[in-house]
Automatic annotation (TrEMBL):
This is Putative predicted adenylate cyclase. GO terms for molecular function: inorganic triphosphate phosphatase activity; metal ion binding. SUPFAM superfamilies: CYTH-like phosphatases. Gene3D superfamilies: Hypothetical Protein Pfu-838710-001 (2.40.320.10). PROSITE patterns: CHAD, CYTH. Residues 214-430 form the CHAD domain. It comes from Serratia symbiotica str. Tucson. It holds the Pfam family CYTH. InterPro entries: CHAD_dom, CYTH-like_dom_sf, CYTH_domain, YgiF. Residues 2-198 form the CYTH domain.
Length: 430
């Protein structure tokens, strides 16, 4: 079994043309391009897909390999999945060669059938960067499922030996030239979507963070930024696909990152996130500008480098040198207890802002403050059941909507309704 650590980048034709010359800057070993053919299989009830597993036969020119990828972990663009590989003589399944214990209960192996395929040319370089060896693969071709197909043009960076930080640093160096953007969807995920009819994805509401049981404050902080980045990446794909309203969701994700840095700012000094905040400050006005086209901005150097900086900050735990032993002890403390304290503070500020009647001009002035605290509640409320949190949050969201839409007739009723709900968190003095 192996565990992949890789980063996928979608590339423009200009970036593809420039890649070989860029890689000359570092020691590398180039391999002759290969034709790759992948055939993906499914059961009639899509059981493997429901278990986040993928079965395929891959052809390397005239050689074949059968691969089973099992459920793994996605950390802000870095894919880590246990994988089993078996060499076979022909492109025909030979399932008996896999370890018997890897199949989930209820999987009917007799019902497997082809679902979709990918056909592309792969050109590879093994690059020495820092103290690591990183395989850079350029894939160009097509994904097809029945009569549906879409172009494939991506660059994958896979860590073969060394450190994830070097992989991210190499990606950042390649990003300087533009023409690249992060792609979280694997070839398989794109193929499955085609096989299901290529139905357009819908925008998603920002969900309340549900932290793992007994999470530390540090783990909660990581999960908070991961949630925002996931929301960002999902809606970036929709924006590029023509959904102009998805741009607002990208801005919502950036606002959530900012709020996370504020929430944890008492434990992580501002200088630990100075570079991140500076990058967000540069990028945000471009996203606000409705004349900027997503095909231009999302493939720009500063856009990708901002996302890579956030990923690197999380993966390398870049704040730790700034917090010291005592600060780390606080980060190791209970996230649930931290949330209760911070929820109380946010609620107190909202009560101070809205615990008296405002005139029609004063209400909209409070919208930015309300929006920030609702972002805080998104990150801090997940330890409690939805039936406890939803009435409280829904009432404040209703006030937010009334202010955003300038529904003056609803201001006062929404304010009173929001203030009428008792806190749902523990140790509250409110």
């Amino acid at each position: 079994m192996t565990v992949e650590i890789e980063l996928k980048l979608i590339a423009t034709p200009a970036a593809v043309t420039a890649l070989p010359q860029q890689l000359v800057a570092w020691p590398n070993q180039h391999a002759t391009p290969q034709k790759l053919t992948n055939i993906y299989f499914k059961t009639a009830d899509n059981f493997l897909r429901s278990q986040d597993m993928g079965l395929r036969i891959r052809g390397f020119d005239d050689s074949y390999e059968m691969t089973l990828k099992t459920a793994g972990k996605l950390l802000v663009g870095l894919h880590q999945r246990p994988e089993y590989n078996v060499s076979i003589a022909t492109p025909v399944l030979a399932l008996e060669q896999f370890p018997a214990g890897i199949w989930p209960l209820g999987c009917d192996l007799t019902a497997l059938q082809p679902l979709f395929r990918t056909d592309f040319m792969r050109e590879k370089w093994v690059v020495t960067y820092g103290t690591s060896e990183i395989e850079v693969s350029l894939d160009q071709g097509e994904i097809s499922a029945g009569e549906l197909s879409e172009a494939l043009c991506e660059i994958e960076l896979e860590l073969k030996q060394g450190h994830t930080a070097d992989l991210l640093a190499l990606a950042n160096a390649l990003a300087e030239h533009g023409g690249l953007r992060q792609g979280n969807l694997s070839k398989a995920a794109r193929g499955y979507h085609l096989a299901q009819g290529n139905v357009a994805h819908e925008r998603r509401q920002l969900r309340v963070l549900k932290p793992a049981a007994k999470s530390s404050v540090e783990q909660g902080m990581i999960a908070s930024v991961e949630l925002a980045l996931s929301h960002w990446q999902y809606h970036e794909e929709l924006w590029l696909g023509g959904d102009v309203q998805a741009r607002r969701s990208v801005l919502e994700a950036i606002a959530l990152i900012r709020q996370a840095l504020v929430i944890f700012g008492g434990l992580v000094p501002r200088k630990a996130s100075a570079d991140l905040r500076a990058r967000l400050n540069t990028l945000e006005p471009l996203l606000v500008d409705k004349t900027v086209q997503p095909q231009v901005l999302c493939y720009s150097a500063q856009y990708l480098q901002c996302k890579l900086a956030l990923t690197s900050w999380l993966v390398t735990r870049a704040w730790r040198p700034f917090v010291g032993v005592k600060g780390q002890a606080k980060l190791d403390d209970s996230f649930k207890r931290f949330c209760d304290i911070m929820l109380g503070r946010s609620a107190a500020e909202l009560k101070a802002a809205f615990n008296h009647t405002l005139n029609d001009d004063e209400y909209p002035e409070q919208l930015p403050r309300l929006t920030r605290h609702l972002s805080a509640f998104t990150l801090l409320s997940g330890a409690y059941p939805d039936e406890q949190t939803e009435p409280y949050l829904a009432s404040w969201h209703e006030l937010q909507l009334a202010l955003a839409e300038r529904r003056q007739s609803g201001y006062e009723a929404s304010r009173k309704q929001a203030l009428s709900h008792a806190p749902f968190w523990l140790n509250s003095a409110l």
